[in-house]
Amino acid sequence: MEIFEYIESMNSRPELFPDVLAYAREHKVPIMDPDALQVMKHHMHLTGAERILEIGTAIGYSALHMLSVSDDVEVVTIEKDADSHRTAKAFFGTYEVAGRVDPILRDAKEIDPEMLRGPFDMLLIDASKGNNEYFFENFSPFVKDGGLIIVDNILLRGLVVEEEIQSRNRRRMKEKVDAFNKKIAASGMLSSFLPVGDGLLIISKQEEGKNA
Fold it and tell me: What keywords sit in the KW lines (predicted)?
C-alpha cells in the first residue's frame, strides 16, 4: 500500500448513500472522492457551517453528505444539466431532505448572486474546472467573514503537473486550473492545498484588509 492510499483509507468512512454512489459509478457521474468529502465535512463541523452554497449539484451526492453533517444544515445548489438536476431532486426526496435543500436548475454563470439567499457559511465550487476563478470571484463575496470556500478537483487527476499535453482542450483546462491555484497561493488569503481525493483547496474568508 502506498502512503497516499493509506491516508485515503484513514480519511474514508462507511458510505452513507450507497445507492447514490452506485448510480454515479454506473452512469459515470463525476462525484467527490470519499476522503475529500470527509475532510470537507470535518471542516464543516469545526466551523459550524450551516448555510451552504454549492456550484455543481450533479446528482446530489456531495449535497447529501453536507446535509448529513447536521439537521441544521441547509444547501442551495446550482446545476445546469436538467437530467442531473432531476436525479438529484429524486435522491433528495428519497432521503427526506428536500425541505433543507434548494436545487436550482440554471447555469451558474448566468445567475445573479444577489438573487440567492445569502450570506452563506460555506461555498463549495465543484463545477466546470475551467471556471473556478469565475465562480470564486462572483460567489465568494456572498460568503460571510470567517466562512469557508472549498474548491474540489484542483489536481485534475494529475493533469495539473503534466508538461506535455497533446489535447488543446486538456492543455487549456490545465492552464486555467493551475493559474487559479497559483493566484490563490499568492493572494495572502488563508488557504490550504490538500492532497486528498483529486485535490481539495480550502480557503478561510477573512475581513477586508486582513492577510494570513
Answer: Methyltransferase, S-adenosyl-L-methionine, Transferase
Axis crossing angle, helix 18-26 with helix 82-94, rounded to the nearest 10? 160
Q: Total domain count for the chain?
A: 1
Whether the link from the prior residue into 119 is cis, omega within 30° of 0, is yes
CB distance 43 to 68 below 8 Å: no
Secondary structure E strands in 106-167? 120-125, 143-152
Q: Which residue, 65, 48, 59, 54, is CA-closest to 20?
A: 59
Residue whose grid cell is 452554497: 53
Q: What is the Cα–Cα distance from 118 to 124, expressed in whole angstroms?
A: 14
3-class state of residue 29 by DSSP = coil
Q: Are 135 and 55 in contact (CB under 8 A)?
A: yes
Looking at residue 7, what is its pLDDT? Answer: 84
- pLDDT of 208 higher than 70: no
Give me the sheet containing 200-204, strands edge to edge: 101-105, 74-79, 51-55, 120-125, 143-152, 200-204, 190-194
Q: Is residue 74 part of a domain?
A: yes
Residue 118: give its domain's CATH number.
3.40.50.150
Where in the sequence is the domain holding 162, given as residue range(s)? Answer: 3-204
89 C-beta neighbours (distance < 10 Å), count:
18
Identity at 172, one-letter amino acid code: R
Q: Look at residues 171, 202, 210 and name the one whose alpha carbon lies nearest to residue 49.
A: 202
Measured in degrees and rounded to the nearest 5, phi and psi for residue 74 equal -125, 140
Check whether 210 has a pLDDT greater than 80.
no
